[in-house]
Each structure stands twice: as C-alpha cells, then as structure tokens.
Amino acid sequence: MLLRLRALLLWPAVLALAATGFWWSARSHEPPPTPGRKLLTWVHFVSPLRDHYEKQVAEFQRLHPDIEVRLILVPMSEYHMKFKTLAAAGQAPDLFYSGDVWMSYLLPFMRDLTPLVERDAAEIGLDDFFPEIRAALQHEGRYYVMPEHANVALLYYNRSLFRAAGVPEPTADWTWDDLVRAGVTLTRPATADDPGVWGCGRLEGWWGEWLTYVRQAGGAVFTPDGRRCALDSPEAIAGLRFFQDKALRHRFSAPAGYEPLNGFVNSRLAMLMVGHVSYWPNYNQIPDLDWDVQLLPIGPASRSGGELAIAGYSISRHTRHPEEAWMLLKFLTRPAAALEVMRHGTISPRRSVAAVQVGERRAGDRPRQVAAAYEQIQYAQPIPRHPYYIEIMLQIVQPEIDRMVQGELTPEQAARRATDGVNAFLATFHGTGP
Amino acid sequence: MATSVSEWRQSYAAVNHSLTLVATPGSTTYDPMNDRRAQAFWFWLFAGPAVAGFLLFSAGPMLHSLWLAFCNYDVVAPPQFIGLRNFAYLLFHDPAFWPSVQVTLVFTAVQVPLAVASALGVALLLNQPVKARGLWRAIFFLPSILPQAASVAVFVYIFQADGGLLNRLLALAGVTGPAWTTSPAWALPVIVLISLWGFGYPMVVFLGGLQNVPRELYEAAHIDGADAWGRFRHVTLPLISPVLFFNVVMGVIGALKVFDLAYAFGAAQGLIPGGPARATLFYGLNLYQQAFTYFHMGLASAMAWLLFAVIVAITWLNFRLSRRWVHYGD
Number of A:B CB contacts under 8 A? Predict the structure, then answer.
C-alpha cells in the first residue's frame, strides 16, 4: 500500500519540480519598475567610464522623475552575444552602445533615427559634429547612431627616443619612405645589457594597421558594390607588401609577440602606427614617457586610409518607449557630456568640444599636437559597410595576413587566399555567388 | 540482515501482484502477462524521468540541430532551408574548417599518448609503498581541480615572448626565446604542454587498475626471473589494459572536443580566438565561434554533426582495435 502511494506520488512530485524549475528560469529576475515610471533599459559594455555613466543616469532620472533607467553592463567580449541573445528573446534593450564599426552588423536591430534627428537638429547641434563623423553615422543616408566619442588612427611617437637617435620628429608631410628611414635609424638591437629599441610597433590580430596601408596604396577590401573581395588587386597587394616589408625587409618593425602597447610605454618602441586615443590617459600616467602624435604618413596613392571609429548609441527598433529613449540618447551625447567624456581621454565628435580641448593645451601636456588628431579626421575612413565585415576580416582575412607577416606567405599568396575565402563565404551566406 | 532473500522475494511478488490487481480492475487472479505489465510499470516509473529528460534536453535539441544543419539560421530570422550548402561550404570552401580539423587531430595524436603515458607513469610511482603516499597522490591530483582558465593564464605568463618567465630564464643563458604563444609554430605545442598539467583523473583511474593487479602474479614473475620491465610488460600492462583502453577512449573523445583550453589561451593574450594564424583553432572553438560569435547556427550545427560522426567512427575503431590488446580476463 505504502509503495503504491509512493509510486503515485513520485511522478506528480517530479513533474511539479520540473514545472517549478521552468517557471523559475523563465520568470524575469529583474524587479519591476516603480509604479508610474517608464522603464528604459540601456546595455553597455563594462567601461572605464562606468562612474560617468552612472552619474549620467542619476542626473537624467532627477530631470525626468517619470523615467527609470536601468544600466546593464556586460563584459566587452560578450557584448554582442548578449545583445543578440536579448534581441532574439524579444528583450532587446531600449538603448544600446553601438557605433559605426558595428552599424552594419546591428542594423537589423537599430531604429531609424532620421526623423528624430531632423526634428531636433538644432537641439542636438547636428552641425556641431565633424562632417566626416556625420557621414559615418549614416547608412544609405539614414541616421542610426548618435556619437559619444571617436577614435582616429594616428602616428604615435616617443620624443625621447627620437632625440636620443638624432632623428627629426615626424612632420605632417611624412611619407612611407620617411617612416622607413626613421624606423631603421631608430632601431637598436638588443644586447645583454640593453633591451634595445624597435623603430615601430606592429598591430597584430586585426586590420587596423594593414588596412591603412592597403587604402593608402589605393586598394580596398571589397569591390564598390560590396559583392566581391578586392584584396587581390595590385594596389591592395602593394599595401600588404609594405606591412610585411616593415618587419621582414626593413626590419624596423617589432616581431610577433612583441606587445606594442607595453613596448611603447616602456620606451622600447619609437613609433606606433594607428594606436587608440583611449590609451592617452595610460600613457600620461608614466612620467618619463615623452610622447606625441602626428598625422599618419602619406601613402603612395593617398593620404587617406587611416581608420575612423565612432562610439555612440542606438535605439532598439522595437523599443516600447522611443521618445524616452531618444531623450536619454540626446542627454548622453549632449555637449556637456561629450566634454566630460573627452576629459577621460578621448577625442570628441563635436567641433565645439574639440576647440575646447585644443585651446586648453598647456606647455607639458601630452600629446602636444592634439590638433593633429582632429586634422586626421578629414583623412580618415570608416570601415566598409558590410554586415559580415568583422567576421570576414577576423575569421578569413586576418589569419592569412598573420601568416604573411611571419614570412609563410607572400603578399600575393595571402591576398589570393583571403580573396578566395571571402568570395566563397559571400557566395554561401550573402547570396553573391555565381 | 533482518530480512532473508526468500522473504524479500515473497514481498516483491506480493507487491507485483497487488500492482497487477491495481492495473487490471476486476481481476483477482495472478496473471504472468500482467506481471510483465507490472514490470513495465516499475521500469517506466524509475527510468521515466531520465528518459523524459533525455528526450527533452538531449534527443530533442539534437534532432533540431540536425534540421538546422540544413538551414541558414542566425537566431533572429526564421531558419531558411538551404539543403547541403552548409556542408559543402565547410568541406570545400571554408578556409577555417580544415585547419581546425588539422589542429584538433594533431593535438589528439600528440596529447593523448603523452597524457596517458604521464598519468600511467605517475600512477606507477604513486602505487609504490612510499611514505605519505596519500599526500603525494593528493598533490599530483591537485592541478586537475584547478579551473582550466586559471592554469592557462599562469602558463601564458610563463611562456610570454616579452618578459615571460621562460624567456627570462633563457636570456640568462644568452638564448633569445621565441614568441611561444604568438608564433604559429609554437602556440600548439605550448597548448599541449599546458593540457598535460591536469592528468589527475586518468591517473586515479590507473591507480585503481594497478591496485587490482594480484601481487601473486608479480611474485610468480619474479620467481620466473622477470626483471622490472618484464613484470610491467607481461603482468601489469595486460592486467590494466581495460583501464588503459578506457583512458585512451576518454582521452581521444576529450581531445577531439577541446574548447575551454583553446578559448582561454586566446582570451588570456587578447588574441583572436584560434590565433595566431589559426594555429590554435580547435574544432570545438571554431564551432563555438560560428555559433555564438557570428550566429551561424546552421553552419555550427553541421559542424557539430560532422564532429559527432567522427567521434563515433574513431570510438568504433578504438573498440575494434581493442580486441587485439585489451584483456578482460575471460
């Protein structure tokens, strides 16, 4: 009798347990918003600007007591996986970190901001943004991102090492040949007592540096219609060859595994191509590091080619509170906030803030030539607008470039292998096959 | 025991009979057919949750992934049937697929013998009557309970090209060490070395096998004039061959599925996962990248089924070959 009872009770108990588990995992763990307030969710990656963002949220909520903002911070390496998973589950945040680099990838989730931008153009100071930045914010003439800060590829250099080697500092009219000459002179081999100096660093693992050379040599990643890869053009191959020659022919570029940022801050790298403006505060924490920036050296076909990357915000296509999200977006990108972000060590997409930054320079401030960063914007280009750009570059192209720089492939072989791989990928996933 | 076996059998029959009566209303006699129904009832009662769990959480997703293997699916838009294009792309066009197969097979071919040999060697040592044997066993097992990511982070520091411990030591000897972790030639050997750190589990299995070898056989071999190698070759090895076979099979399956080691290796250095130049692009990592970084769920499903087929084939081959060298004492 007892066994029968147990048998009859066991299954309902198991089912009840399973149902409880499903219910527990399915229910939202987020507390509901305060009654009478609209809830806005904002997803951002974990950033050194976290305190700034939390202050912005508090200030915004003070000004708008009927809106509650919930800031969700996600590790950068998981940001896009988290975002896409939320979107697939129908829980896309109202506002999210984005930028021109990810625009094509995230476009299906972005709300077209054009009507709001045009309506509030005066209030947001649309004309205050650099024209190149305004252009980079758009996709087919429509706005999807509003900018908070920007990065532009530059030539970074260690003034002390230049002085010690008797090499004149880079100037705005430097060419690739000047870079090679200075790099070779600045390179000092390591000895038992001296760790040595490399003339220039080399960016590994992503496209920042080599794509600059490809573009400055007149090449491109894709054909103008974006349907085929164009890395096997003679111009693109010339750019790749320069990237390889820096290390293997002229031997002034640091070898594989030589971390360029460590090398630069330890005064073992005289120059760094491309770099990132967000590292400026780190450089400035090292008292003996006398560094500066200059425009990128001019390539054989063009001065243009360095990357322009804009960080900003977008509103979800399916947000339930588009007006409130737009209010928060305007608040986060207003000139006062841009000024605050600039002081944390970036360059601003706003001309007014740039003028303040340049005007505030005092003797001894580094970089001295901060104006060069803003001047470089006019020669900079955003990455190609392609939904698979990042995947294509990191998964298909970059490994071939890495092998090329190791000397395993010639530039022609690397370009051919990369082009074939990209075209096969596009044919399968982008419907551009024969 | 208060209850004898015969008493237990009687009570079991009574329970079965009472359940039979429950199952067939109106019946008052014992029926062998109904006895089978009672057995089925008991079977499903106890096996049911596991079977339901398997169907819901393993078989169901597996079948769904089999369907997705023939689709283009990015999680957001509905799956779009594309026939065999995922498989065709993987096998004939994907520049990452075959390199990832190669990396995984090379790793398996090198790591499994080394790991099994290391585990067996240490188990043989720890099976000797030494002082504080339990402590030594615990010490050798400890690395296995460390999180893989933590071990990798430490080893990456040791092998770092610029300022790493190993290269600093080499520099003291006047040797310039290579970029161990960022050179395509060295990165995989470094990962093999890191993976050998955690041989605790196979070591424990070997210890269990070694302790079951009868001492009389060693004494008989000794009397017959066998030296240490002879005793190991002709007594120990045949008698622990089932355990050795188990470790080889599990090692091969584990090596073919390596993911966390490779992922942590890239993450610890800020490399693209699988870098440099796909030198550490393990199959599992490639699959993860396709699924959860680029959301090519269809492609990733196709990769998963190919891996499944390969693991089944290799395991079957292992079992076939085991007939020649595994002795079960029958």
Answer: 108
